[in-house]
Amino acid sequence: MKKPAFLLLFSLLLNSVPLALADEEAQSEYFQQITALQHRAEKLASNGLDSNNYHLVKSRTWLNFALSEAYDKDTSGFIPAAIAQAATSLDALENKQAVISMDTPTQISGSESVRPDLWDKIATLKKHTKFSCAQRPIAEAEVYLVWIGHEKYESGWSHAESYVNGAEDRIYAAKVAIDNCTPPAVKLAQPPPPLEKITLSGDAMFAFNSAKLIPSALWRLDTLADDIKTAGQLEEILLVGHTDNISSKGYPKHNQIISEQRAESIKEYLIGKNIPAEKIHASGAGSTQPLVKCSTKLKKAKLVACLQPNRRVEIILHGVKTTAVNKGSAK
Description:
The structure is a single chain. The protein is α+β, with helices and mostly antiparallel strands. The chain has a domain at 194-331: CATH 3.30.1330.60. Helices cover 55% and strands 10% of the residues. The chain is built from 12 helices and 4 strands; from the N terminus they run ααααααααβααβαβαβ. Strands 1-4-2-3 form a 4-stranded mixed beta sheet. Helix 11 links the parallel strand 2 (232-242) and strand 3. Helix 1 (2-46) packs antiparallel against helix 2. The longest helix has 45 residues, at 2-46. The protein starts with a helix and ends in a 10-residue tail after the last strand.
């Protein structure tokens, strides 16, 4: 009786090997497709397409979430569906289509439709006459809601609900952008604003795997706040949190959450220093945009040290500067 059972088990294990290899090949292909599409998006931006363009932002956001799920080895069908959405937008932009559809599916393969009330708010914002001023947060909110639907599909609403704040924040940011929007005719008459980018080391701002500011970080933010106030006519401050690919929780989505929380911590501190809240937009990229790559064979202490440059918060300033921002505060 034991021998047939053993043979059956051996047969099942043997048959599972090709499936595992197929999964690995699929994941490798996903990474290649995502990288190729990211390069296409970068080329469009470098050739003069507004980085806040609704379709460009939406394609990049689809790719960010596809990459996050690829690292998580997702097999629900979400990754190829997200890649297809990004490719469709990039194809239209590259072909300079006169009219590009702004429809976004409330669910794709591997996801469920969630929060119809938020989708209704987004639909109203997209019809606003000043939509052009809120393209980025609206595009991000749409894709974010689909990703939340994926989290519900995978782990249930009690898990997915913790991500809803990210979508609500982007919808709020869109409303603020529209409320403070300069009429397009006036805005077009102005020269394009210069871009200033500052990078703050995550290790200098937060304890490892934490989003709480450490005391020694406060002077850097105080100096940054003073510089921002005297830097000129700043229209927008973008805070983007980044992490390494190490997660104490054991899955990359934890990195996405903590990257958002770190950006929000800095946002709240700057608001407390009288920087206008409506000008600050915080978001997280998790571990999807590393500056360095390190061998996974390193012991944890050495791996943490090697990946240090990836743990950072990038601060992007849009506007017209009359004085230079003091970069001595950004380490």
